[in-house]
Design brief:
Strands 9-10-11-12-13-17 form a six-stranded parallel β-sheet. It has a five-stranded antiparallel β-sheet with strand order 5-20-21-22-23, with no helix packed on it. Helix 5 (139-155) crosses helix 6 (172-181), helix 6 packs parallel to helix 7 (200-214) and helix 7 packs parallel to helix 9. The protein has 16 helices and 23 strands. It folds into three domains: 2-52 and 405-456, Roll (Urease, subunit C, domain 1); 56-256 and 317-385, Alpha-Beta Barrel (TIM Barrel), CATH 3.20.20.140; 258-316, no CATH class. The protein has 457 residues and is of the alpha/beta class. A hairpin with a 2-residue loop joins strand 18 (339-340) and strand 19 (343-344). The structure holds zinc ion. Zinc ion binds next to loops.
Amino acid sequence: MLDILIKSAQYPDYEKGEMLNGDIGIKDGKILKIGKVTESAKQVISAEGKVVSPGFIDIHMHEEDFINEGERYVISEMMLKMGVTTCLGGNCGLQHQSVRSFKKTISRLGGAPVNYMLLAGYNSMRTQAGMGRYEETPEILVSEISKKIKKEIEDGAFGVSFGLEYDPGITFDEVIKVLNELTYDDIFVSMHYREDSAGSSDAIREMIEIAKVSKKKFQISHLSSCSAMGQMKDALKEINDAIVENPKLDYDTYPYNAFSTSIGSAVFNEGCFERWNKSYEDILLTDEPYKNCFCDKELFVKARSEHPQMLAVAFVMNEEEISEAISNPYGMIASDGIINNGNGHPRAAGTFPRVLGRYVRETKCISMINALRKMTFEPAKRLGLNQKGQIQEGFDADLTIFDPKIIMDGATFEDITVAPIGINFVLLNGSIALKDGKLINDRLGQFISSELKKNYT
Ligand SMILES: [Zn+2]
């Protein structure tokens, strides 16, 4: 007897490149049968008129901050509510705690709302080593930090992330030295560029060069926030040409015309408004005492000096260029979800439903199957998750069932807690984790370590 039978599913077949119809039988956490399934099941779900997708894989988000938030899942609960079943934290060079302690915390809490993977964050380690934002790191210290990253990888991290914009002192040579020390074949490297808007061309060329020299799987992070200020066409041309030469290169992008980072960040240094052709009024603060306040010059300066960790949202990107980054033949969808003190950018709660509602259904800038491919198949392949990201017999039963006629994000810049609509079920490892927006079981997710990944190959 099957555990769950999903009847009349419309699901993506990436090999054929089309949406197919059939039943999906699940047993012991795996997809056992697809097609006309006549076996009985403990539970039957009708998917008439719905799409059954592999659970979304968010290749770029930021991990739970258990140190500041207490031991409460915030981001990964939002992930589950928007159909994500596996996510990769520790991006942009930022890491709150060591992989080992994060892994331990998840197991002590009896699982997580979604499957979690983590990168080692280079900037965090560099800061811990005593380096200032604008200082160049001495060679001996680069070796020491690299050893720490190796240790994190041995503890289960999938690779390393860098945030060049956050610590402008990190040089091209420094990055190459670190990557040369990491002699593992298959690790994943993600990078938040050195500069956005007017600096985007140089920043993208630098990343393309690092990818080429390091020969590692290399991901340009959240392209929209780098180049959607008038540079997207050029950026995509550079990247697409480079991917033909170096298939280990790719990028991710999120579907919003505003980015978010802490107000104290170097991103907001002198000259940023001239670069973006925007002003103080385009910056929204997200926490008390200035929650939902747009800045003027005085507030901007005050918030930066008195509350540098407060997340701010910068409405500085062009919608048309957001679409171009989403519909390009290469690239993946990722949330870049980050929450601080319960506040932040709605992308943490709405990214995937927003792409399916706004860009697939409404503007039609991308087809359903291509959007799903960028949310499931591509990130799974990239991360070596060989049993996830596709609906195939023998694959993990991580599934998201949604209504393509109504799916849409709910979270806004004023209130990120509004859940998306149109997500009917999320199955994690073959069990129901979410039904009609309600959490049924919020501890089905596990920490996937790079070691565990070996079991997948
Ligand atoms: Zn970033």
